[in-house]
Amino acid sequence: MRIAYVLNTYPQPSHSFIRRELHALERQGFTVTRLAMRGPDMALVDPGDRAEAERTEYVLDRGMPALLGGLFGLALRRPALVLRSAARAWRMGARAGGLSGRLRHLVYLAEAAHVRARCATEDVRHIHAHFGTNAAAVAHLCHALGGPGYSFTVHGPEEFDAPRALSLGEKIAASRFTVGVSSFGRSQLCRWVDHADWPKIHVVHCGIEYSRFTDAIPTPENGPLRLVSIGRFVEQKGQMILIPAMQEICAKHPDTVLHLVGDGPLRPEIEAGIAAAGLSENIKLIGWLDEAAIRAELDAAHALLMPSFAEGLPMVVMEAMAAARPVIATYIAGTPELVRPGETGWLTPAGDPSALAAAACELAEMSHENRDALGQSARRRVLARHDVDTEAAKLAELIRAAQTP
């Protein structure tokens, strides 16, 4: 069975979970056409991401004149269908905000017409999109134009911040099914549709590849406390709060080292904050790394520090736990479904640097044996809940069931 993955920007260093899911579906027997609106907006350092970029078709590379020409060609053949779909796009754009939102959704309509044509050429039976934003809008409008049925995965937090502007309820109602990556995420989706549509909303976790984590090593036994935090440098990830947290940690354990892996628009602000706090020897900005280098960072650390203000269910938390590292995270969104205080790590109130610092100091003062016990418990829990092939099998069954009349 051939399906299409419709994506906005792909691949991205922070979206390796899409690649892993896609490959797992291919192992389930699907042939997957990759249709992204645009290419990555940053350098790809991981060989897997670079290979995906080679296999992906980029819709906007065709140019807007060609996309509009395709839409007008369809309008000549099916005027009533295109007119209804244009009216739908116009209404969705109005919710997104004024004239710019309306025009943006008409661009999505042109993209959708091209996706429809490609699906017809490739005999695609089903479309799956990731995120409830642009990609889901294109999948939704493609279906309105007579294209295949669709589903989409919602991660959060962006979708939860603006559900009406994203026409989230309309997209869910018209989908064959919709996926949340946690029970919390599913609950948020249920808020925006009639109760009759709740059964079409399912939980499929993001998954890890067990083969990448077969050789989990013990936490470092000697030396100062080593922490790692991984993610985009954006407001929702909360990295700025790590600066006052590290001031408190270093007051008790002055040799503590924190590696910030990632990059993003807040990098200049983070760099300035580190310098102003006099923590340049304690907090190091590492940049984006490939999967092997991220694994090396986790292996060298005693724990993952995740100070997020808003989340879905962070992939890096799963990867840290699979590497047998305890997690210090904030008590938000789907994270408490995975991280168990006293069993696999710590949960702290979001926005509280002192609570993060207290958890890190508790970790620093634990015996090596107790640190390892936490890490091994974390590993068992994530491998039982987030194996990528198990989760992809759930998604595959939903896709196959959606083809039944």
Automatic annotation (TrEMBL):
<protein>
    <submittedName>
        <fullName>Glycosyl transferase, group 1 family protein</fullName>
    </submittedName>
</protein>
<keyword id="KW-0808">Transferase</keyword>
<dbReference type="GO" id="GO:0016757">
    <property type="term" value="F:glycosyltransferase activity"/>
</dbReference>
<dbReference type="InterPro" id="IPR050194">
    <property type="entry name" value="Glycosyltransferase_grp1"/>
</dbReference>
<dbReference type="Pfam" id="PF13692">
    <property type="entry name" value="Glyco_trans_1_4"/>
</dbReference>
